[in-house]
Amino acid sequence: MMAAKQAYTQEEIQAWLCSNLASALQVEASEIDIQQPLEEYGLDSTQAMSIVTKTEKMLGFEISPTLLWHYPNVEMLSQRLAEESAELGGEITDTTVTNQLNIIKPATLDLNAEIVLDPAIRPPAPSSRFTGQLDNIFLTGGTGFLGAFIIHELLQQTNADIYCLVRADDTNAGKQKLQHNLESYALWDEELSARIIPVLGDLSLPRLGISTEGFEMLAANVDSIYHSAAMLNYVYPYPALKAPNVLGTQEVLRMASLFKLKPVHYVSSVAVFESSAYAGKIVKEDDEFQHWQGIFLGYSQTKWVAEKLVKLASDRGIPVTIHRPPLISGDSRTGACNTDDFINLVIKGCIQMGCFPDVDYMLDASPVDYVSKAIVYLSRQSESIGKAFHLQHPQPQPLSHLVDWVSSVGFPVEMVPYEEWQARLINNLSSADNPLYTLRPFLLEKWSDEQITIPDLYLQSRRPKISCEETLNALAGSGIVCPPLDSQLLMTYSAFLMQNGFLSAV
Asked: Hey, what CATH topology would domain 115-336+364-397+465-492 get?
């Protein structure tokens, strides 16, 4: 038995949440509006989970990580937590871990009902045809990881000016943001930089947060659109991600259909096949993806709906290409990667724990330079219009391959049964120095009637087999080949991670 902490009042919990939110966002606590929707604060998964973990410690009971997003703001969340704190005043048994705070579930989600594309979004006139001219490109996601590499490829492979949607206070700050992102992956080229033009806006707003005149000017002048932006968050439920990921895609399609027809090169995800209906089945590029039951992550649900909207637009006559990457790994040449990436954090955490779970996982992440080169090349082939492409790694390797390699370079790691790994995660981690400490709520959360955890969802037996045969055929002769997941690639990645201090040399 362990004694519960004292019962906390709503005011105390509210002050605590404001303080921690402010700390995560690097602002003053007085700047936190307790009535502002939580998702508008732009926390990433790790920040959200860190707040959950700290709050659990303070309150003395376990909180479901998705709870934060089922109460619309700090005020209402504090009220709910205060009620639970009062109920649990007194003694709590060690079984508290299994008695998680109940979530008020939103109404059952029907993703089919979400496939609604504004009827106004259709080609402007039968005579309007895409000419193939490429002087001006509109791109979303330029401050993201893949987006930076797509910008780099477009600068190299075309002479077009690239208009990049960016959230910033002014044009100068927007350009700085784009430059900083490209520099962080060693992609900035001062000589070509004049061709990168920031467009101030917001993916989650009507017309992408651009003024009516600005939106119409872009629609009249751009020749092609690359839509790679999405809010990637493993904790947010579908409603919190709908505005940027689903409605944002609708606004991109609106721009494509306004005044003149423009092709849309849409970066989707292999997550559209995450439904349990595809478990163990081969899915090809042109297969339909009708099933959505059994897709649990809000992010994956939004990608399913958004790609359905792109398909609807295609049926109406808007030229589209769909690119479905898997998880994306670092640059195969430099090792440059996003160190806040979920996979990097898990690998680092497992190395610090000294063990990986012995599970049937396949490493199918594709290097970002392969994905970006393939997207830009395929988007420029006229026969690609109307097709989907799978940028899955053609030769995935078992997780044991990575663990053997990690061990061979001197990190003392072993593979242990999954239940033992979970037990160590629960009982042995007590410090946020290990990234898995803040990821614990997410990794241990039980989903669906089966009560399975996220790591269970990604077992090979539950996943589809993604075929990329048609994509490899389309890339034949381009010189674009996916680098093998071999010792050379792993050495490149680990050298980068050690150089920037993310991993400590042994």
From this structure: Rossmann fold (3.40.50)
Tell me the Cα Rg of the chain.
23
3-class SS string, 82-129: HHHHHHCCCEECHHHHHCCCCCCCCCCCCHHHHCCCCCCCCCCCCCCC
390 pairs with which residues across the strands? 324
Give the pLDDT confidence of 88-117 residue by residue, as tens digits: 654 433 333 334 444 444 456 888 889 899
Nearest to 218 by CA among 281, 260, 181, 168: 260
Residue ranges, the chain, pLDDT below 70:
1-6, 39, 44-46, 62, 64-72, 87-108, 126-132, 441, 445-461, 505-506
Query: What digits encode the pLDDT tens for the residues 254-307?
Result: 999 998 999 999 999 988 888 878 887 888 888 788 888 778 788 889 999 999
CB distance 52 to 63 below 8 Å: yes
DSSP-assigned letter for residue 458? T
Residue 280, phi-psi category: left (phi > 0), alpha (psi -120 to 50), beta (remainder):
left
Residue ranges covered by each domain of the chain: 2-98, 115-336+364-397+465-492
Choices 1.10.1200.10, 3.30.70.360, 3.40.50.1980, 3.30.70.980: CATH for 2-98: 1.10.1200.10
Helix or strand or coil: residue 368? helix
